[in-house]
Amino acid sequence: MGRPPCCDKSNVKRGLWTAEEDAKILAYVSKYGIGNWTLVPKKAGLNRCGKSCRLRWTNYLKPDLKHDSFTPQEEEFIINLHKAIGSRWSLIAKQLPGRTDNDVKNYWNTKLRKKLSKMGIDPVTHKPFSQILSDYGNISGLQNTRSYGSLNKNINYTTTAMSKPAEPSSVLTGYPNTDIMMIRDRPIVEQVQDSSSNENITSWDFPSPYQFHVINQETIQPQTTTFFINEATSSSCSSSSSNVTKLSSPQPYSCQQSQSQILPSPSSFNWNEFLLTDPLPFPGFQQLQEHRHIQGTTLAQTPHIDFAAENDCALNQIVQEGSLESAFDFGGQTNQRSEASSSMSSFVDAILDKDSEMRAEFPDILDGSFDFY
DNA sequence: AACTGAGCCAACCGCCGAGAC
DNA sequence: AGTCTCGGCGGTTGGCTCAGT
């Protein structure tokens, strides 16, 4: 029946590690390598839980870890990736060589969150507080208050808006240790005519620490890294086009463009301006919605949640494949994200729509059920 | 010098999915 | 099939340091 417990939790040392204990871990790893952590305490002569040993190793003792403070580039990168994917610390840390998820998380909680707040940016949604309040104002000002039930009766809306993760977007700038910088605050969609196949290719700005396709460097926009969705096939990122160059190196932070071409000068880059830009919904969002309608799937969830789930899938693929190529494949449907920001542009709107929908569907059940005030 | 509160960060907690038994 | 641990993750806490009073 199950495995035996890894250790006697009540009889293991806890708290800060001593230099002697660290040395034992290091000696163990150098002798046996990384492996079954439950055996580590016994083999290394430590009175610690195996899980605690693993944490000590991954967060502190691993030889490739950086212990110096974060650079401005790393800081910028964390903010942008957090804006894009939320508090996925391990994913963010994987893009920062030498940093652990704990490092990134601590740095965010102690420095960056406050920094954004001081700048008037909600560190969770990455939206200006003014916009959040404006959203709240719009909610309060709606004529058909009844249809929104209790949701607009109290400050919970604001709380919700401010505590939800940012809608992921392809906003990424400031790559550390890098020769690439993508400075765009939102995806750009442009139609590119493929001269060889007459296929329309839609390209987006896209985060670059992954493998992706770029336009021929002759045609690439300065400060822009471009990702392709090939409309003519079900697979994204077709490389058949003569206009498309596939980057073969999966190395993070690498691009064949020189820093001088891409990096803004430190003095020209305006953080406030960048952060205050409202990110558009994730590229392909509208396609997702359309795709679901095609499949007969109604919006059973709010667009935000829908989107988050979809992005989870995308992120899983990033993790599994180290590539964005397939992570955002929407079945080859045409990318027409230009109107995606209209009706579903905010999380609050989405909640309202969903609430309204539910109330229409279940008027008797919902009426008053959630009126806490 | 003593106290206090904020900042920082290492370590722990608790949850979850995968897999062992 | 059900129970349990492992490993990984994000959230939280406890204790140390330091600046301000």
Mean pLDDT across residues: 53
Number of strand segments: 5
The proportion of residues forming helix, as a percent range, comes to 25-40%
* Biggest sheet descriptor: 3 strands, antiparallel
Distance between the termini: 50 Å
Ranges with pLDDT <50 over ≥5 residues? 142-348, 364-373
User: Which band does the percent of strand residues land in?
Assistant: 5-15%
Rg for CA atoms: 24 Å
The SSE order reads HHHHHHHHEEEEEHHHHHH
- Overall body shape: elongated
Task: Assign the structural class, choosing from mainly alpha, mainly beta, alpha/beta, alpha+beta, or little secondary structure.
Answer: mainly alpha
Treating each run of at least 4 consecutive H or I residues as one helix, how many helices? Answer: 14
Q: What features would you highlight for this structure?
A:
373 residues, mainly alpha, Arc Repressor Mutant, subunit A, 3-stranded antiparallel sheet, two-stranded antiparallel ribbon, 14 helices, 39% helix, 6% strand, elongated, disordered C terminus, DNA-binding
